[in-house]
What we know:
By secondary structure, this protein is an alpha/beta fold. The protein is built from nine helices and six strands. α5 (106-113) runs parallel beside α7 (133-150). The longest helix has 23 residues, at 227-249.
Amino acid sequence: MLAWISAALVGTSFSAERHQETRILAMGDSITDGDGKHDSYRRHLWHLLKDAGYKVEFLGSRHLNGYYNAQPPNPDFDMDHEGHSGWTTRNFLSELSGSNEGRGRLGDWLSTHTPDIVLLHIGTNDILTCEDTAGIVARIKKMADVTHTMIPSSTILISTLIPLGNARSLGFDDKYCGGREGLNTAVNELNDGLEAVLAKVEQVRIVGANRRIDPTSDLYDGIHPNASGERKIAEAWFVALNALLTHASTR
């Protein structure tokens, strides 16, 4: 996998060295957000990058975790982020359904923080609300397009969705989305779409976090990662970031 990522980075315009600060914006839903009992993958990733000698700054308007703005269990990392629990791709793109809860601020965040690299894991809530997977992929591509229009030098790393656990235990029936065989069928379709569509977009890299997660042991509620799941997601991001930053430093 590392060789594939490194080969794909040829032509990337972002450049950095380990002694230079790299600005990273992590965006997504509750898997990025975490809560008062779960740090999210962001803590593990920050430590992996620091231990590898990279100077990084995490960006974002949020500094705490979850719906209730709770302190994470281990606040020993740069906690800035744009994880928003419950959000869908429509919310990030201002396609609001219902009350406006400060959603659709992608352009504001990008203009305020101007990241070198964007990390994006989004789509789980879309799946749980029966959205068409092709439409989800199209909106994720639009998010990438907006990012590159506003910050042409940026690189966006898009994670495949991690698998879901037992849907019925979460209050979902695997077949409740009108003829869909199962929620993980939709997750797999979405991931295939990301590989087919987004991997062809300049300065976009697909990170296969889904391949690392065992839904029976790495999720605490069938959706969200527990401590082992957070570490595995962080490791997937780190492999991609290390390849990107190492490649850029040798240019």
